[in-house]
Amino acid sequence: MSGTSDSDNSPTSPTAEEVAGNEDLIREIFLCIPTRPLITFKSVSKHWSSLISDPQFSLHHTLKTNPSSIIPSGIFFYNSITKTKEIDYVSLASITDECSRARVRAPSLSFLDEAAKGATIKILQSISGLFLCRFTSQSNDSEVKYDYCVCNPTTKHYTIIPQPRLIEHEKIVEFSLAFEPSDSPYYKVICIKSLTRRYLGSHSLGLCQIDIYSSESRVWRENSCRFEDHGYVKFDKPAIYWNGRMHWITSDLMRYYTVEFDINEESFKGSTLMHQMAHGYHNTPLRYLGECRGHLHVIYVRTPSSKLFRVLERDRETLKWCVKYRIHLNRLLPTFPEIVLQTGHWAQYNFGVEYAFSILYVYKGEKEEDSAMVLTIPGKVISYNFFHKTVKVLRELPSQEIDTSRHQYVTGFHFVETLALA
C-alpha cells in the first residue's frame, strides 16, 4: 500500500542561491545590520556593494538609527600645543567593552583635499556621523574666502553647501549643523548672518537673520527668522543640536543661559538658566558643551584656577539642568603634573594657577559605571571614569613639546560610523 509522507507535503526551504537572488529579502536583512559590519559586506560582491551604496538604501538604514545605540568610535581633535591647525584622532576603544566593539581604523579626511583645492580645512561640528567643515582660502588680493561642506568620513562622500545670498553689508556669523537620523535621514544647515555692520569681537550686534539649508531640497530658505542680538550670545562656536533645538551659550554678568531655536517651528524658545556664577567671578569659563546618546552636557569652572568642576546634564522631559558629576583635578595632578600651566593667561587677574587641559568629549555609557570624560593634556589624551574615578592614557602625543605655556583650549569632534547621506 503506497502513501505520501508528511515530509513530502511540507514546503521546501529556500536554497542559499534562492535567498541570495532575492534582492528584496537581502535589503530587509541588511536594514537590520549595524553600519560597521554592513560596510565590510560591501567587499563580498559587486552586487552587495551596489545594494549597500544605493542612496535609497542609505536613507532607509539611517532612519533605523536609534540615538541611544550610537557609539562613537573615536574623536577628531586639534593638537593643543604644537599643531593647532592639524587634525588628530584618538580611538575610544579602550574606554569600555562597548566602545571596543566599535573599534575602527582611524578615519581620514584626505578625501576632502580635492574639494578644498588647497584651502585650509577645519572641522566645525560633528553630529551622528556627519561633519560640518569650513574651507578657508585667500585670493591674490588678500581677500579671505570661506566655503562650507558636510561630509561623511565613513562613506567618504561630501556636499559643498552653496553660499546663502548676501547683499551689501551682510556677513555670515555662524554655520551649524542639525541632524537627527531617527527623525529624518536629511540634515539641515543653520546660517546666522548679520544684517548690520556692527561687531564686537566674534559677536554680532544688531539685527540678525537665520537662513536654513535642507539636504532634501538642496536650497536655502531665507528670512525664516530675524532677531535682535546685543552681543551676549557666543557665536564663536557652532550650536549644539539636541532634542529638536539648536542650543547656543549666552551670559550676562552673573548667569549662563542656553538660547534655543526650534528647527521645525523655526522660532526661538527663550532661554534656560544653566549656572549662577559665584559673586565676583564674572564670565567664568565654560569648558564644554556637547551631546552623547541623547544626553546634553555642559561643563563649567567657577574660576580659571578652580580644581573642582561640575558636569551638568539636562533632562529631556523637564528640560532642567542638574549636576550629574563632580571632578577634582587633585585626582589627576599627582600622575600628570604637566597639567599645571607654567604661565597662566589669567595670572594678570590674580586668579592664581591655571590648568592645561581641554575636554574633548563626555561619553555616556549604556551602564552608568562606563560613563567617562576624555581630555587632552600636554603630551597625552586621557580618559577619566566618573564612577570608578580611574584614569586611562588613550594615546601618547610624543610630537608635542611639553611646554604648557603654549597650551590652547581645543574642541573634540566625535566620530560615528553611519551610511547617512552627506
What does this structure look like?
The chain is mainly β. The protein contains 8 helices and 24 strands. It has helices at residues 6-9, 16-21, 23-31, 35-41, 46-53, 55-63, 97-100, 113-116, and strands spanning 74-78, 87-91, 120-127, 130-138, 144-152, 157-161, 171-178, 188-194, 199-200, 203-214, 219-230, 240-242, 245-251, 255-262, 267-276, 286-292, 295-301, 308-314, 321-328, 358-363, 372-377, 380-385, 391-396, 412-415. Strands 7, 8, 9, 10 and 11 form a 5-stranded antiparallel β-sheet that branches. A 4-stranded antiparallel β-sheet has the order 3-4-5-6. It has a 4-stranded antiparallel β-sheet with strand order 12-13-14-15, with no helix packed on it. A hairpin with a 2-residue loop joins β12 and β13. It is globular, with a radius of gyration of 24 Å.
Number of helices: 8
Largest sheet: 5 strands, antiparallel
In total, the number of strands is 24
Helical proportion? 10-25%
Strand fraction band?
35-45%
Residue-averaged pLDDT, rounded? Answer: 79
- Taking pLDDT < 50 over at least 5 consecutive residues as the criterion, the unreliable ranges are 1-7, 277-282
- Rg of Cα set: 24 Å
- Which shape, going by the Cα principal axes? globular
Helix-and-strand structural type: mainly beta
- Separation, N- and C-terminal Cα atoms: 69 Å
